[in-house]
Amino acid sequence: SSPSPPPLGTFIDNGALELVEVLGYGGYGVVYRAVDTYSLKPTSYAVKCLPHSQKRNTARQRQLHMREITLHKLASAHPNVVTLHRVIEDYQYTYIVMDYCPDGDLFAQILHHRRYLGNNALIKDVFLQLLDAVEYCHSLHIYHRDLKPENVLCFDGGLRLAITDFGLATTDEMSTEFRTGSVYHMSPECQGAYFTPTRTYSPLFNDIWSLGIILLNLITGRNPWKSAAPDDCTFQAYLRDPLHFLPTVLPISEEVNQLLVRTLEVDWRHRITLREMRAAVKEIDSF
C-alpha cells in the first residue's frame, strides 16, 4: 500500500515550502497549495504529491512518475502549459512543484462562472491558446491523452489558459493503451474494439477529438454525449446524421457545426489536423 498523504503544515524542500491547503485529490495522490517560506512576499505554488508505492510494482510506478515529470517539464516551456518549477524527492513521496492558479480550472469557469457563454471573442481567444499549447506538445511528439476542462487551469480570471496533468501523456505515435483519459472527452477509437479497425489508435488524433469536445464545452457549457461508444444512444444519433445532428441538440452556429463535423470524425484517419483546425477557428465569427 502507499503511505497516507502528508498532513497540512508539513514542510518540504528543506523547509522552503509549507503545505497549507488541499486543492484536489485524484487517482495519483493529492495536490496542495504550498507557500514559499523564504521569500518576503508569500508566493503560492501548486504541489502534486505522488506517494511511492510499497508494493512490488514500484519500478513500473516509478517509470510512470518519471514519464509524467519528463514530458511535463519539456512541454512547460510554452506559456499555455502550466510551468513545472522543480521536483523534490524524499523516501516516501515525489513532489512536483508547479504554478498555482487561484482562478481554478476551466471546468469551474464554465460551470460555475459561465465565463464564456455568448462571448465570441473570448471563446476564440482562449480556444486558440489551447490549440497553441497542444500544437507545441505535438511538435515535441508529446501527446496528452487526457485533455478536458479539469486539466486546463485558468489565470487572469479565465483570460489565460494553461494545460496541466501529464500523467497519461505518451510519446508513442500509435498506442494500444486503450481507455486512457476521461470518458466524456475520449475518442471512439481510444475506447477499444468497435471503432478501432487497426488494433491501435493515434494519440495525436485522440487529442484532436478531445479538443472538439472542449470547444463544445466552452460554447454551450454541456457535453454532446456521455461516451463516444456504440451503446450511447445520443452518440448513435450523431452517427446516423453527423452533418446535422449537433445543432439540433446544442446551441451552436453552422460555422461551428462545420468545424465539429471534421473534428468529431469517427475514422481518425480522416479527422481534421491541428493546423486546419486553427485556420477554421480563426475564420469563425459566431460560435
From TrEMBL:
Domain Protein kinase: residue ranges: 17-287
One Pfam match: Pkinase
One Gene Ontology MF term: ATP binding
Keyword set, alphabetical order: ATP-binding, Kinase, Nucleotide-binding, Serine/threonine-protein kinase, Transferase
Chain residues that bind ATP: 48
Coiled-coil residue windows: none
Family: Belongs to the protein kinase superfamily.
Protein name stated in the entry: Protein kinase domain-containing protein
